[in-house]
Amino acid sequence: xxxxxxxxxxxxxxxxxxxxxxxxxxxxxxxxxxxxxxxxxxxxxxxxxxxxxxxxxxxxxxxxxxxxxxxxxxxxxxxxxxxxxxxxxxxxxxxxxxxxxxxxxxxxxxxxxxxxxxxxxxxxxxxxxxxxxxxxxxxxxxxxxxxxxxxxxxxxxxxxxxxxxxxxxxxxxxxxxxxxxxxxxxxxxxxxxxxxxxxxxxxxxxxxxxxxxxxxxxxxxxxxxxxxxxxxxxxxxxxxxxxxxxxxxxxxxxxxxxxxxxxxxxxxxxxxxxxxxxxxxxxxxxxxxxxxxxxxxxxxxxxxxxxxxxxxxxxxxxxxxxxxxxxxxxxxxxxxxxxxxxxxxxxxx
Length: 349
Ligand SMILES: Nc1ncnc2c1ncn2[C@@H]1O[C@H](COP(=O)(O)OP(=O)(O)OP(=O)(O)O)[C@@H](O)[C@H]1O
Ligand SMILES: [Mg+2]
Known about the structure:
The chain has helices at residues 42-50, 96-106, 111-124, 140-152, 170-187, 198-204, 222-227, 232-237; strands at residues 2-13, 16-27, 31-35, 57-62, 65-69, 72-73, 81-84, 158-162, 190-195, 207-212, 215-220, 242-251, 256-261, 264-270, 277-283, 288-291, 295-304, 308-315, 323-328, 336-341, 345-348. It is α+β, with helices and mostly antiparallel strands. The protein folds into two domains: 2-227, P-loop containing nucleotide triphosphate hydrolases (Rossmann fold), CATH 3.40.50.300; 240-348, no CATH class. It has a six-stranded mixed β-sheet, with helices on both faces. Strands 2-1-4-5-6 form a five-stranded antiparallel β-sheet, with helices on one face. Strands 12-13-14-21-15 form a five-stranded mixed barrel. A hairpin with a 4-residue loop joins strand 12 (242-251) and strand 13 (256-261). The protein is globular and about 80 Å long. Magnesium ion (MG) binds at residues 42-43.
């Protein structure tokens, strides 16, 4: 049974529909990333799951039991949900140990049980030696760990994380990503992890749910989102590449279709819903090769990336389109050459 079910979930704030008919099942022990641009409704979904907001319509169930909706609203403290915010929200006047133990204090856990659980939570996040310090005496990464320990001390079955790494520098983020993966494996908790960073979502999650304007556009494994995006928005948001207009000539139902693009006909991968007519094609850098005779292109921009060059080209037949290539840095071709599109993913236009 799903640990967490969102069914027809809607949240309106006055005229704004922040969450718009979202259906999503999250499995027990799954690490799900909620990904999307600023303002797409990620935090609102999290606040609905935690019970800080009441849905305008639809319902939320934990392990099959409705906690929000249909006249039901279980308060946040009774949901066994742990939350880690971007801002950490630590008490500056309390020691690390007291910050971590605070939820236990509120729940009236005392004595040996209290000490044992605080020590275990600090141990889990690698902060056992810093229990007596105050937040001001810690680095950003250590503060983030305190916030994490404070969440884990209540052994939540669902952990909600709202952009927990947004305040950290690049190196610390990479180290903390490893930490989150380890914690997920160790605790077995169901995790819902908000981010607007697609690389972070790809690195961490079993599955990514992409939100846009309050709507769930696609929920799939990182590999699937990358290779078979359901819509141009997902294709543009996940990984690098281009989305260009094409025409489907024939869709023969074997997972490929004949597409007319830049005056040539090619067979590309496509989903079940694709019909003959206008379509969009997602083309990744690895789909494109340089050939003797192919589609003539003009170089528009070149960036050395260390080991290879990223090159933006415009087909001569469609000068407003931009395709992205990766070529060995040592042997970049001149300002005009020819390419073949060996692969691509066709989406309904
Ligand atoms: N309490 C509120 N009252 C009115 N509008 C709100 C409220 N909370 C959120 N909104 C609006 O709902 C939409 C979704 O907001 P939300 O905070 O969920 O976005 P987000 O995806 O978390 O964005 P970000 O990546 O910037 O944190 C936005 O248009 C926002 O302005
Ligand atoms: Mg947010």
